[in-house]
UniProtKB/TrEMBL annotation, chains A, B:
GO terms under cellular component: cytoplasm
A Pfam match: Hydrolase_like
Family, per entry: Belongs to the HAD-like hydrolase superfamily.
Highest taxon in the source lineage: Bacteria
Source organism (scientific name): Pseudomonas taeanensis MS-3
A molecular function (GO) term: phosphatase activity
Matches recorded under InterPro entries: HAD-like_sf, HAD-SF_hydro_IA, HAD-SF_hydro_IIA, HAD_sf, LHPP/HDHD2
This protein's name: Haloacid dehalogenase-like hydrolase domain-containing protein 2
SUPFAM superfamilies membership: HAD-like
Signal peptide: none
Cofactor(s) needed by this chain: Mg(2+)
Keywords per UniProt: Hydrolase, Magnesium, Metal-binding
Length: 249, 249
């Protein structure tokens, strides 16, 4: 039995804005068993407050503190390192980072899923800062995501563009980076080897968690595709979150 | 003695809009010796007509037909393959591709140095076409270029972004691709082994040419940096175009 549980959100708790069958009850069961819990996500289009509002709207009984998002991990890192970033992030996050946005002389570049702010002028500004030695930080390097039936470009392609242009490598502060899983576990005060990560993305959620020392569990909902389990040897497998919680928690 | 000569333009013929010392006379010498000649460039911000206008303005006695540019290579390829591309190119090239621009159902994506047209909406449109199976074609994959004292993002970073997003590999129809050098030599009717490529970019011009079967010559002007010759073993080396022509042509 794990001492703490990390859950991916999209494709595990809900799909197309509707909770997946049995998932609300499964989270309730985890909470009532007293498992320290974090919902972990790379989403950088929404604030934690908005994610919380959406999940409670679907019936999930969670607190805002139980959401550990890539933007939250980025804030901790930036403040711990005393960085003054140039922020290339979504307008929805402006409020969350309001106290850190204005930097007279940026010495870092932070990328989220900036959507239409990924344009030539903003990318060139970031490129010049990278050439001057600023580190490149990103909230995930996902290729794309599903939204209302369409695939949308995520931050990953723009991370690759800037890495190639400036000849640098980004530090990713989202799944599947070890730093990200470690940050979530630090909040819970639990060692990686005592924690279970449940997700539908075999690479980012499951294999990433295994690489960070956690136990991984792949659920066959969301973006799961038949055969994915082969990419994370040793991972647990469950049909959905309800079964995963029932069998492994 | 080579039967044909290919010359890079920027950094070999001119720098900062001024002809390099001895280069005008060197091109004159090549022409008077009767060497079949092509000026080869990945520039996709300018039409061949405009490049010709600039070079003749600097005193170069060349014809428009002697310029072999990545856009020209792209046009040949697109027409030979009967493709209907979605064009993500610079506004300066709109005129050059006017007869091919409007495509009702694009079945290919063509990238040049599109400058401010590299925005989220255009890239996402290209991404969706790639997911539907359209091939990705690019006029070079250069990281950046110098312009009026500043470094500007070239097409390469956006090629990488789309390759990563869609999980595809681009066909590059500019230096250093074999197809590009072969296209220039085909116009001249000369075999690769009988041709000499002179350039200042050790990777794109010189090593690329060597890989395509040409003899390569690196000149120590333009973007040349001390030690570059180590990256193209077997290449000829000259201080500038004047010396290269005098010694090797």
């Amino acid at each position: 039995m794990p001492q703490a549980v990390l859950l991916d959100i999209s494709g595990v708790l809900y799909q197309d804005a509707l909770p997946l069958p049995g998932s609300v009850a499964a989270v309730e069961a985890l909470q009532s068993k007293g498992h320290p819990l974090r919902l972990v996500t790379n989403t950088s289009r929404l604030t934690a407050v908005e994610i919380h509002r959406q999940l409670t709207g679907m019936g999930y009984a969670i607190t805002p503190e139980q959401i550990y998002s890539a933007p939250k991990a980025m804030r901790s890192y930036v403040q711990a390192q005393g960085l003054r970033p140039y922020w290339l992030i979504h307008r929805n996050l402006q409020e969350e980072f309001a106290d850190l946005l204005e930097q007279a002389e940026p010495n870092a570049v932070v990328l989220g899923d900036a959507e239409e702010r990924f344009d030539y002028a903003h990318l060139e500004r970031a490129f010049h800062l990278l050439l001057a030695g600023a580190p490149l930080l990103a909230m995930g390097d996902n290729r794309y995501f599903h939204s209302r039936g369409a695939l949308r470009l995520d931050a990953g392609p723009f991370v690759r563009a800037l890495e190639y242009a400036a000849g640098v490598q980004a530090l990713i502060l989202g799944k599947p980076s070890k730093e990200f899983f470690a940050g979530a576990l630090e909040e819970l005060g639990v060692a990686a080897s005592d924690a279970l990560m449940i997700g539908d993305d075999v690479e980012s959620d499951v294999f990433g968690a295994q690489q960070a020392g956690l136990l991984g569990c792949l659920v066959q909902t969301g973006k799961y595709r038949s055969g994915d389990e082969g990419k994370a040897p040793g991972a647990l497998l469950a049909k959905d979150l309800a079964e995963a919680v029932q069998r492994f928690c």
